[in-house]
Amino acid sequence: MGIIRRRSFSQLQIPSSNRVELIDTPEKLISFAKTSSIETVPFEAEKVASALGIVVKYEGLKNDISGILQRKEDLSGWEILVNSAHHLHRQRYTIAHELGHYCLHRFYSNNFEDDIFFRSAETSQTEWEANDFAGAILIPEDVFRVKLREGINDVEALAKTFKVSSLAVRMRAKKLGMSGHGL
User: What is the CATH number of the domain that holds 133?
Assistant: First the structure.
């Protein structure tokens, strides 16, 4: 098998009059949410998905499957399937993770099926990228640092602020090079 070389959307030859702003970073997605009057802290992932035209469905998936991003059968758009049996915070993270796949990887595949995050030793590069994307939109660095300066430094309090799990807070802190205060 040959090596698949990724081309970024910006490398595609599209006449300038037909270009649409591509949302391919957490910052651009947060900006899109703000301009769409969608709350960003805590990040309303389902509303953002809907604003992007992505249908979110809660279904009974196998317990080890958190979510799926897939093209609709008629190829008219995308949908996110979320495991309805998982905790609300995990569901929010799953939607954010699938938004990461949508923003970063949708030009390379029509289907992303994700097992329980952070638990697989064989996590692929695309999964790590989607995890990082999810962490960045659910726990934006600038807001995270402001909360810490305001004295909110308990992991559980931060988790409540961002409506994520304490594990997500710890993973984001680690990614940002933060330590102390239980981080």
Answer: 1.10.10
